[in-house]
Here is the input.
Amino acid sequence: MSLLGLYNVLNTYLIIGAVLFGMGIYGMVTRRTLIGMLIAAELILAGSSVNFMAFNRFTAPDPVTGQVFTLFIMAIAAAEAAIGLSIIIAVYGHFKSIDAEDTAQLKG
Amino acid sequence: MNPSALTSPSLLTVDGLVGVVFLIMVLITVVGGLIACNSERLVRSIAGLVVCFIGVAGLYFFLNSPFVAMMQILIYVGAVAVTISFAIMLAAPEEKKKIGPTSILAGPLGFITAALITGGFVVLALKTEWAIHNKLNDGSMKSIGLQLLTDYSMVFELVSIVLLIAILGALVIAREGRKN
Here is the structure.
């Protein structure tokens, strides 16, 4: 196995997906603002999409299933970004801050 | 699996050049992800996310699905990243305030958590013998369209409704926030 033939190996894509997922987890844990957490969530979704596409290409009997599933993940991510944007704007209008430490009371 | 993966293609052949392009795409993805989760300013973070998504779209090209790659660029780079940019512009005034880790423990502990999860996934991926099945169809755009409108039509409609409700709900929530 050589460096230039890596694009045809399943494990390469699985490792890239795991690295993306780990970076998303890291951002989710360390970020303080809600927007930073939203960005980290997008990284996690990208990592899982890469995994779906890799299994779709290399092992799955029907190579359409993974692509369709990735399209649905994209649609859900778009919905999540829209909802997140509106919640962030509402939280900012109420607390004048989007720091996760400041928005600590439940009564909206 | 293609036998060319087991031999070493020369740099000047088509396979070798494709391998170089693939390594560049992996580099773009990882560097973009690192910028997205490490930079101190949110605007740079969203720019890193865009770079990362373009790299992921390149990976989708290598996984035999140019349709999903185009959708990745259209939806993520064109819609999601722009939406998050709007959120930054509308609700993040303190550009000078650092958004780094909260405490000393948040950095190392978060890194250890992420490293353990990543390492676990990598070990799991490398240790497992994945069963390889024969392909039923070619996975082209035509078969994607056929299956979206036959086997997955219910899910397709449900996702459409979810998107509609999400956009309506976003409008409602943002408007209520504006009243205060």
Remarks:
- The helical segments of chain B are 14-38, 42-62, 66-91, 106-127, 141-149, 153-179.
- Chain B is about 70% helix and 0% strand.
- Confidence is low (pLDDT under 50) at residues 1-5 of chain B.
- The CA atoms of residues 158 and 164 of chain B lie 10 Å apart.
